[in-house]
C-alpha cells in the first residue's frame, strides 16, 4: 500500500510522484505526477493508446517522430503577393525547418507612413515606409 503524500510535501522532498488516495477524474486511485498532476494510470493508458496505428491523430501527434521525406519542405514558406485588399489580410511566413512550422513574420499590404501610398510589406510589423520613401530619407541624411 502506498503512503499518503501531499503535493506540497512531494515538492518539498523533490519527489516525482505523490499519492492523496483520491480518485482522478477517470476513477483511478493511483499516484499522480508532481509535474502536471496527472494520474500515473491515465498517463500509461494514454501512452499505450498513442502508440497504436489506428489511434486518433490527437493522441499520436505528440509521439510521431519527425522524419525527413522527399515531400517535406525546408526553409521558409513565403506566400505570393496578392491584389490590394485595403490592408486587411496578413499571411504568415513559416519556418519549415521547425516541427511544427513556426511563423517568423507576417506579410501583407500597408500604407506608407510618409507618402500614404499602398505597398506590399515583407514584414507588416517592422516595415512601415515604402522603398521609394526609404531611399529618399537616406539621401537627405548624407
From TrEMBL:
Query: From which domain of life does this come?
Result: Bacteria
- Which protein is depicted? Uncharacterized protein
Provide the species name: Pseudotabrizicola algicola
Amino acid at each position: 500500500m502506498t503512503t499518503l503524500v501531499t503535493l506540497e510535501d512531494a515538492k518539498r522532498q523533490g519527489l516525482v510522484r505523490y499519492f492523496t488516495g483520491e480518485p482522478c477524474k477517470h476513477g483511478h486511485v493511483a499516484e499522480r505526477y508532481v509535474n502536471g498532476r496527472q494520474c500515473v494510470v491515465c498517463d500509461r493508458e494514454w501512452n499505450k493508446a498513442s502508440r497504436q496505428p489506428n489511434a486518433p491523430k490527437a493522441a499520436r501527434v505528440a509521439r510521431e517522430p519527425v522524419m525527413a521525406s522527399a515531400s517535406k519542405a525546408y526553409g521558409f514558406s513565403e506566400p505570393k503577393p496578392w491584389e490590394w485588399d485595403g490592408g486587411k489580410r496578413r499571411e504568415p511566413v513559416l519556418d519549415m525547418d521547425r516541427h511544427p512550422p513556426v511563423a517568423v513574420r507576417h506579410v501583407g499590404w500597408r500604407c506608407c507612413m510618409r507618402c500614404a501610398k499602398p505597398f506590399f510589406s515583407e514584414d507588416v510589423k517592422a516595415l512601415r515606409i515604402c522603398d521609394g520613401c526609404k531611399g529618399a530619407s537616406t539621401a537627405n541624411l548624407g
